[in-house]
Design goal:
- The protein is of the alpha+beta class and 345 residues long.
- It has 15 helices and ten strands.
- The strands form four sheets. The protein has a four-stranded antiparallel beta sheet with strand order 1-2-7-4, with helices on both faces. A two-stranded parallel ribbon has the order 3-10. The chain has a two-stranded antiparallel ribbon with strand order 5-6.
- Bound molecules: iron/sulfur cluster (2 copies).
- Residues 151, 194, 196, 198-199, 212, 217-219, 244, 246-247 line the site of one iron/sulfur cluster.
């Protein structure tokens, strides 16, 4: 099987971006390990524990791997970008989390593809979607899918950055793609628009390379952090309930980003009403967000985020639901609700 044949099969499986990288070198792994060692991953253990070293070499996951098929699945829809939406009374959920769990959908398609390839070539394979210790964006770049922008997202020149990434590690030797040039140029829109200034220069201020300080990022606070959100950061979180899209919304390469027609990726929870979210019981939360990425915060983390968003809304009508949250059984929810009340006052 040739690289071109495999890539055509991947396109026919519904993936908009397709390319092949070598399993040998993972450029950027040195920078990644340095980033981890400087503490910029915060409390995200899955990035900093023994899995960090594994990311240096794809073969730590599959010793026989020679090539990696990297795919991108478009998830953008026609809904407006967060900065164009009036969030009066509502909270923002990140675009990628509006629908069912992409891990399941992508894994299904990639596994079917890998089985077909293996049946015709006899190769070994391993399917990965997000959770495996791989430097996915580096591999996608090496496969020719795009460059890594200052906002740290993979950006495709023609199709923007609203993509989920997935991989099939293969024991086949295949022709690999070419990393495209970095087309951020002198643009710093994402750096300037980030409310918490989480996109920071690598090294000295003024350097032209940037990296993410997760410990300052709204996505980190609202999704990854389990305990209290640092108080000084709460006002900057605005009405974000789960994740943040601002550094992608402002990117010029997303101005004309295509939208998906795939029924599995149509939006369900775009900007939910904050009062309704504060009133969700644990059962309601599970039912509302079952099999969506929002489940990751768990109910208590979500209520913590609702309390911050209500406090930041400036809407005094939220004093009543915040008082109810201030009597919640969970200490973190209670404390954030008290904070929300004091901010409204
Ligand atoms: S996701 Fe939001 S907070 Fe995080 S870097 Fe991007 S703009 Fe900043
Ligand atoms: S907003 Fe500008 S600097 Fe940021 S990723 Fe997009 S092109 Fe690059």
């Amino acid at each position: 099987m040739t690289a071109a044949e495999l890539m055509e099969m991947a396109r026919e499986s519904g993936f908009e971006l397709v390319g092949i990288a070598s399993a040998r070198d993972v450029p950027e792994s040195e920078h990644y390990l340095d980033w981890v060692s400087r503490g910029l991953a915060g409390e995200m253990k899955y990035l900093t524990d023994e899995r960090a070293q594994k990311r240096k070499d794809v073969r730590s996951l599959m010793p026989s791997a020679k090539s990696v098929l990297v795919v991108g699945k478009l998830y953008n829809t026609a809904e407006p970008y967060s900065m164009a939406v009036n969030l009066e009374g509502r909270g923002w959920i990140s675009r990628y989390a509006w629908t069912g769990d992409y891990h399941l959908t992508m894994k299904r398609s990639l596994t079917a593809l890998a089985e077909t390839v293996s049946a015709s070539t006899g190769c070994d394979y391993k399917v990965c979607v997000d959770t495996a210790p791989l430097l996915e964006r580096s591999l996608a770049k090496q496969a020719g899918l795009g460059w890594i922008g200052k906002n740290t997202c993979l950006i495709n020149q023609g199709q923007g950055s609203w993509f989920f990434l997935g991989e099939i590690l293969l024991s086949l030797e295949l022709e690999t793609g070419l990393a495209p040039p970095d087309r951020c140029g002198t643009c710093t829109r994402c750096v300037d628009a980030c409310p918490t200034k989480a996109i920071v220069p690598v090294g000295k201020p003024g350097a032209d390379r940037y990296e993410l300080d997760s410990r300052l990022c709204i996505s980190y606070f609202t999704i990854e952090l389990r305990g209290p959100i640092p108080e000084q950061m709460r006002p900057e979180i605005g009405q974000h309930l789960f994740g943040c899209d601002i550094c992608q919304d402002v990117c010029p390469w997303n101005r004309k980003a295509p939208v998906t027609a795939d029924p599995d990726f149509q939006p369900k929870h775009v900007a939910p009403d904050l009062a309704g979210m504060a009133a969700l019981s644990p059962e309601d939360f599970t039912q509302t967000f079952r099999d969506t990425p929002v489940e990751r915060t768990r109910h208590r983390g979500f209520l913590r985020n609702v309390a911050v968003a209500m406090g930041n809304s400036g809407n005094k009508e939220f004093a009543a639901p915040l008082r109810l949250l201030a009597a919640h059984q969970d200490e973190v929810v209670r404390e954030h609700a008290e904070w929300g009340l004091s901010r409204l006052a």
